[in-house]
């Protein structure tokens, strides 16, 4: 972010808020902030606005580069060059960066701050059409991260620290106490506030681009990798090696109910990877229906293809269709019924079960294709003419036939024919575009 350096403005306000002089050291700033922040914390009945001012003042003055700009130009320079006085961090986050949490109970302020939520883990689950028709259950073994059972993902002395902070704050002994306990990790994996980012997980770099231009860049702290805390090697938990989580195998039973759809989600709340100070996300299985060799599904209906011979189409048919649950269905035509090519017939209540209303089912549609013989001999033609309706074509005289031009029919695949013609038209269009002056000739023709 860029901004012009303003004229000098008030550069003493933040020092007055913390109650320190302009030449106060970093240790003096820390002591002053800790004392005032505990005194004014909203969970202890303090003024929320005063608590916010303290956090903003400390955030600026604890950063050497921000402090230099503040001392030189005042608060206006921070507002213009750094987007609002450098107070972009939550005051409770700054407070917790000292103590790893609220020392007055709970995980945050009395205003009910939201806990960060972990990511959901999505797994595709392939199922057959039979699985979706009949319902099934599948047991799946998954690996996930869980909070280390030995160190619980936090320092085992945190609770003791919190209680002692409240007691010591009344006697102004919190500084010595924090120096003794809070800065040292326990043998069970206690973490310390990262000195590089002061526990925020973020570093802010400020560059002077000129006498009237500054630039602020924000990036994850390279010392703690954005976690806001570090652990000494000698203090790391022997079970999780300081990672705070360990891998665990877990078996989940996924219930696929009758009538579920392709793409439907089955959710296991709170079963994703665990992490300290994070609400665990969900494991979500997304159903992916495999292609079926016979049945096709469209919503709650099923479709199946069946080919009849010409004799079956004209004289009747019957065949057995094995359904998705293994039941044999007898499919037959009515006496004297003729089935035409590309005709559909339906059977009620033999489609897919309706999800969560399995007693209801859609329809089963059968698409009939009629297979004609390639040729007939003269005797077969005479036999058919004897039983079939008479020809409807007009009988032509020899004179009329002599006046006609005879043609020859040949077999053709109309889809292939249309694709070929479309490709030829596209090639001709591209060749016309490549010709010099082609566009001009088209324009003249339109005129």
UniProtKB/TrEMBL annotation:
GO terms for biological process: protein folding; response to heat. The chain crosses the membrane at residues 153-174. Residues 135-249 form the CR-type domain. Residues 417-447 are annotated as: Disordered. InterPro entries: DnaJ (IPR012724), DnaJ_C (IPR002939), DnaJ_domain (IPR001623), DnaJ_domain_CS (IPR018253), DNJA1/2-like (IPR044713), HSP40/DnaJ_pept-bd (IPR008971), HSP_DnaJ_Cys-rich_dom (IPR001305), HSP_DnaJ_Cys-rich_dom_sf (IPR036410). Coiled coil: none annotated. One of its GO terms (molecular function) is ATP binding. Residues 13-74 form the J domain. A zinc finger (CR-type) spans 135-249. CDD domains: DnaJ (cd06257), DnaJ_C (cd10747), DnaJ_zf (cd10719). The keyword Cell wall biogenesis/degradation does not apply. Plays a continuous role in plant development probably in the structural organization of compartments. This is Uncharacterized protein. It comes from Quercus rubra.
């Amino acid at each position: 972010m860029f901004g012009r350096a303003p004229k000098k403005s008030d550069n003493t306000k933040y020092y007055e808020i913390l109650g320190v002089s302009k030449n106060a050291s970093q240790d003096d700033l820390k002591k002053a902030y800790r004392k005032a922040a505990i005194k004014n914390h909203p969970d202890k009945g303090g003024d929320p606005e005063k608590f916010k001012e303290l956090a903003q003042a400390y955030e600026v003055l604890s950063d050497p580069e921000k402090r230099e700009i503040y001392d030189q130009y005042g608060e206006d320079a921070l507002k213009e060059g750094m987007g609002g006085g450098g107070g972009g961090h939550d005051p409770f986050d700054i407070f917790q960066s000292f103590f790893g949490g609220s020392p007055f109970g709970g995980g945050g302020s009395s205003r009910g701050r939201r806990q960060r939520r972990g990511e959901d883990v999505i797994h595709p689950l392939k199922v057959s059409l039979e699985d979706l028709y009949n319902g099934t259950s599948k047991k799946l073994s998954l690996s996930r991260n869980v909070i280390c059972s030995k160190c619980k993902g936090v320092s085992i002395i945190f609770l003791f620290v919190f209680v002692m902070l409240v007691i010591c704050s009344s006697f102004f002994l919190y500084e010595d106490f924090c120096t003794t306990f809070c800065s040292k990790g326990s043998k069970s994996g206690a973490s310390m506030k990262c000195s590089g980012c002061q526990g925020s997980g973020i570093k802010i770099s400020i560059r002077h681009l000129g006498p009237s231009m500054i630039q602020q860049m924000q990036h994850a702290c390279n010392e703690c990798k954005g976690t806001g805390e570090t652990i000494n090697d000698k203090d790391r938990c022997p079970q999780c090696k300081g990672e705070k989580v360990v891998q665990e195998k877990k078996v989940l039973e996924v219930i696929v109910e009758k009538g579920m759809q392709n793409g439907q989600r089955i959710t296991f709340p709170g079963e994703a990877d665990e992490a300290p100070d994070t609400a665990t996300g969900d494991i979500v299985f997304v159903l992916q229906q495999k292609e079926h060799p016979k049945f096709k599904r469209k919503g709650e209906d099923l479709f199946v293809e069946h080919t009849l011979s010409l004799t079956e189409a004209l004289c009747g048919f019957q065949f057995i269709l094995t359904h998705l649950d293994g039941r044999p269905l007898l499919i037959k035509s009515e006496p004297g019924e003729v089935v035409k090519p590309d005709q559909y017939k339906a059977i009620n209540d033999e489609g897919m079960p309706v999800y969560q209303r399995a007693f209801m089912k859609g329809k089963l549609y059968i698409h009939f294709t009629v297979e004609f013989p390639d040729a007939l001999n003269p005797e077969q033609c005479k036999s058919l003419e004897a039983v079939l309706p008479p020809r409807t074509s007009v009988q032509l005289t020899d004179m009329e036939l002599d006046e006609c031009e005879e043609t020859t029919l040949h077999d053709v695949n109309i889809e292939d024919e249309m694709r070929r013609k479309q490709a030829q038209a596209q090639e001709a269009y591209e060749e016309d575009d490549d010709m010099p002056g082609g566009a001009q000739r088209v324009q003249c023709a339109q005129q």
